[in-house]
Amino acid sequence: MAPAPLRFCLDYLSPYAYLAWTRMPAIAARHGRVVEPVPVLLAGLLNALGNVGPAEIPPKRVYVFKHTSRIAHGFGVPLVPPPSHPFNPLLALRVTAAVEDWEARSRLVSALYASAWGGGKGVETPEAVSSAIQAAGLDASSLLAAAQTQEVKDRVRRNTEEALAAGAFGVPSILADGELFFGVDSLEHLEQYLRGEDPLSNVDLERWRDLPSTASRR
Q: How many Å apart are CA 168 and CA 163, to the nearest integer?
């Protein structure tokens, strides 16, 4: 029986998700897995949990771009700020959700990330998204049309709800056999898990879940 796919929950808004995506094909190949790209709406995750994104906190906004630039340098991949940030990722998420085949969807994800964070024209306009779709070798007119259907819109919404139910609170969130790994800095821990070397295997997680709180912020 083939091992379960690695579900990579993504939103093009996040440079961390972009950086993690550049590593996912090699990670999956090393462990005999395939990657299922899952487009989710980061704003939906944040709203459901009463949280805000890093770019919505002015000091953190500047730090994130410095931090991700350093990670990108270490990874040897480009990182160029998009035309605006935050931006509306919905069209890009919906065309991604409209692609049924995972391999083709992965090509599209790479093309859209290149347009968003690799020096392209972003992913907010139909023209920019169309160019990325064509770069992935897919039919732009049919995918742009599919993105306007209720079925595809509902698919992104359902993906987001399922990610929340699985414990996701941001992107990138990677689900391996139901175990969640968050952020580009969790990729090493993901590989430990896939090798059967997760150091948490003997930890009493229930104790952490039930640990009482004796202080709170108003």
A: 5
Give the C-alpha separation, 218 to 198, whole Å. 36
CB-CB neighbours of 134 under 10 Å: 13
Asked whether the whole model's pTM tops 0.90, one would answer yes
Q: How many helices (H) and strands (E) does the chain have?
A: 10, 4
Residue 5 in tokens? 């796919």
Domains contained in the chain, CATH given:
6-210 (3.40.30.10)
pLDDT, tens digit (0-9, with 9 covering 90-100), for 98-156: 999 999 999 999 999 999 999 999 999 999 999 999 999 999 999 999 999 999 999 99
Q: Of 70, 142, 77, nearest to 104 (Cα)?
A: 142
The span from the CA of 85 to the CA of 2, in Å, is 40
Residues 6+ away with beta carbon under 8 Å from 185: none
Which residue carries 């139909």 as its tokens? 126
**What amino acid is encoded at 110 in this protein?**
S
Q: Tokens for 188?
A: 């090493």
